[in-house]
Amino acid sequence: MIIRQNVQSMKSPEVEQVVSIQEILEARELVRQVYMDEKVEHYILDIVFATRTPEKYRLDKLKPLIVYGGSPRASISLAVAAKANAFLNKRGYVIPEDVRTISKDVLRHRIGLTYEAEAENVKVEHVIDDVLKAIQVP
Description:
Blueprint (H helix, E strand, L loop, with lengths): L1 H6 L13 H13 L4 H15 L13 E3 L3 H17 L7 H12 L4 E2 L1 H5 L4 H11 L4
Antiparallel strand pairs: 1-2
């Protein structure tokens, strides 16, 4: 009975369009136009590089926990997401808090933990927290 109820074709719910494709494309372009100061760009780079070479950021304890850190695409994604966060907060400029707010969502799947870290029940979110605490906010 459970199988039949869940496998049988069900009528799809009616979906009502709330924005047009054009509006989405325009919003995406507006997000890219949000201003980001060079200091915030360097802040993003420091965060991402700290996941790759933690010892250079006085995060020696993280070195044995990380197999691989964020890539250049992580930097790009962090910058775009920070701009989107600023846009959603009705600002035309990015502040460091925008970066911090979305860091876990962007970096969570871009940092690989070692088997030892997993055995010790270390979560990638804790690694990101440690990185954010160590990097000086501009």
